[in-house]
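input
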Amino acid sequence: MVVTSIPVSYAEDVVTIIPCSSNHNNPKFFDTPSYYVQKGQQIRWYNADDINHRIVVSASDAKTLLADSGIIKSNGSFPFKFNNIGIYHFSSPVYPWMQGNVSVTDDISSVTMTNPKNNVDVQLTWTLAIPRVGEITHFKIIFINRNTDKNQQHIDYVFSIDSPENKILYQQALHSSWGVEYASYKFNAPGFIIPKLTIDATLFQPVEPVEYNFKMSVKV
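output
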């Protein structure tokens, strides 16, 4: 198996407004309510619902308005670039239960890997950039269609964090509807660890499992 690192500049950070978000009984309204990006990075809010939406971005106090998307039509989007470190709030002024946060930091690492067995690249981002014992590390997984450079929807995957001895420290197996997923883990000991991502279905079709192995070091 050949797995190589490639540049990450083309991967797009997207927060998806999911279908039926206007219904406050829906179990979720965005594909993820918390997003982590590097300073200077852009996020695009994409409306996958069948009705219009509107997003406002504010400072962490939720009072200082920084941006207003106006109407985002179905299948439309709204981009905003975060130039300063901090925690930001995004919400819908029409449907107040739709809320989320963006954490902008320089303490972040990102690696994108490709596997010739399929046309899906995997970008793994984590913050803290160098994980530390006793502190939570947040992972972001983006699946990227190599033919379109867009997020690949409908991926069945397994994400695990393994020790060098192949002991599984953490594992989640899920279906990614919109191509962006999150995980968090608090490390209890220092040393090298292997975050591992396995894809076993794309667009609801089973595929031969394809594995992507990342490497990172946990410090005291």
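quick obs: The mean pLDDT is 91.
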